[in-house]
Write a structure and sequence with these properties.
alpha/beta, Uracil-DNA Glycosylase, subunit E, 6-stranded mixed sheet, 11 helices, 6 strands, 47% helix, 11% strand, uracil DNA N-glycosylase activity
Length: 260
Amino acid sequence: MLNPEIAATESLLAFWRDAGVDACFAEAPVDRTFVPAPPEQKATLKAVASVSAPMDFSGAVGEARQLAAQAGDLDALKDAIAAFTGCPLRDMGASQAVFARGAPRAPILVIGEAPGADEDAQGAPFVGRAGKLLDKMLDAAGLLDKVFITNTVFWRPPGNRTPTPQEQMVCAPFVERAFALIQPKAVLLLGAAAARSVLKTDEGIMKMRGQWREWRLNEGSVAAPVLPTLHPAFLLRQPIAKRMAWADMLELAATLDAAD
């Protein structure tokens, strides 16, 4: 049985992560036991470090754009994603690509962050506990049959961690192509990772949620109003926040009704 103090700590850390508080973390773990090298070794260490360089994802992004552009419909886009080998998550333990579920001509496009264990097993997004909560809220707002649901990445990250901006960048052409094919009347972004990826921002979800933004593709005339809200998985950990997400759902439903 999980220690109550550990569970409370994990819940608090998850709350601040989803709220966008990340300034207390460095770019990489810090080894507090590290002893600096003597001066005579610094030159050697510097030379070794210079050999390492950040991974270049430009080739993978270009391939994704080409495959996405060739997809004439959502079925073809699903096949293109399954055939794509450029996302590093594909080789990190995921069993299959997880694209989407919902109505192909839906007026609302819902975008989460990444598949989890249940999604990886079943091949569809939001089918676990968080997905059941999402469906319940959509149904209560009269929106369940009006959504097409996908994620910013299509392979489960190891340990259900948040996808990196680089992993989202590689998959972005497919997300944008889904947006262009569906041409929804509104977009609902679930959680900080999805909102930051789509809107190209570093803002926290608590600042963005409930505020309408615009998503406009660089090519073409596809655009739609976007509403960031809290991720259902966060609501399971912090039930008190459900009232904020429910207010966002009602706002989305009202906006959709006004657009009809």
